[in-house]
Amino acid sequence: MSLAYLKKLSQTYIWKRIFYERLSEPIHLNIIALFVSLFGSYRTKIDFDLVIRPQHAYSLLSVADQAKALGYDRVSIFEFGVAAGSGLINLQEIAKKITKSTGIHFDIYGFDTGAGMPPPQSYKDHPEIYQAGDFPMVFEKLSRLLDDNTKLVLGPIAESMKAFLEKDFSKAPIGFVSIDVDYYSSTVDALKLLTHSANNMLPQVMIYLDDLEYPSHNSWCGEQAAVHEFTEEHPMRPIEKHPFLRSYRIFKNARWIDHMYQCHVLDHAVRNQLTPSRSNIVLSNPYL
């Protein structure tokens, strides 16, 4: 068991989450999970939510499989809202293990002001929850933990995004975006990444929206409002939840499932192949 895992278990909210999410699942699944934790492959551990931040593990494995099927050997992933950096380091560690499992490499980008949250701009930014200066970064300590494939991008997201919309990602398409910026205004800036040309993205970009759970979160403020408005303004890039993700997961009570969205890149070349590219599918009939 890793040191990071042990530190997680020392926090009260983790045990509360285990009680509500894990122990409410069928006992036989928890018994099987114990054996998987000891003897299972990394892919199986992801299936059983045995990796710290399962939303990251599920998303990175999903985009790695998607990239491999399309003939890529690299994919780009983004975290908006780095703060103390535990999420970014977690992405880095998961990426290494998925690379060993799939052969797909990851370029990781973490966006943050470096000085905590900026001032809220309106009620849409949930000033009743968040305020300027929340979640500052200790840059010196965090930067020492980053490997060569992980880049910190410091400054206002709106300013940083200008250069990234000019960057060529065609060899390592955008595959996953984690948004943990709390504000509506900052989410609007982060989602501009998804306006990049289609050849710079996977056909389905996985998205994790972090700030959805508080009672005052709603569809007219915060990250949800930004996502809804983005979809209205960009009909060829709709963002929506995967409606059947919960039914595909072994452990169905996990909260992270409700945070998962996808951007469907409808103008991607893969989605516009109108001429046959394979032999026809023929269904069997057991009654014949």
In whole angstroms, the N-to-C terminal distance is: 53 Å
Structural class: alpha/beta
Count up the helices.
Answer: 11
**Are there runs of 5+ residues with pLDDT below 50, and where?**
none
Shape: globular
Major β-sheet strand ordering: 3-2-1-4-5-7-6
- The CATH superfamily is Vaccinia Virus protein VP39
Keywords:
288 residues, alpha/beta, Rossmann fold, seven-stranded mixed sheet, 11 helices, 7 strands, globular
Plain-language structure description:
The chain is an alpha/beta fold. It has a single domain (53-269), classed as Vaccinia Virus protein VP39 (Rossmann fold), CATH 3.40.50. Helix content is 37%, strand content 15%. The chain has a 7-stranded mixed beta sheet, with helices on both faces. Helix 5 runs parallel beside helix 6 (86-102). The protein starts with a helix and ends in a 24-residue tail after the last strand.
List strands and helices in order, with pairings.
Layout lengths: L2 H7 L2 H11 L4 H13 L2 H6 L6 H16 L4 E7 L5 H17 L2 E8 L26 H5 L6 E5 L2 H8 L9 E6 L4 H8 L9 E9 L12 H12 L5 E3 L3 H4 L11 E5 L24
Parallel strand pairs: 1-2, 1-4, 2-3, 4-5
Antiparallel strand pairs: 5-7, 6-7
Helix pairs in contact: 5-6, 9-10
Care to give the gist of this entry?
This protein is α/β, with parallel strands linked by helices and 288 residues long. The chain contains eleven helices and seven strands. The protein has a single domain, classed as Rossmann fold (3-Layer(aba) Sandwich).
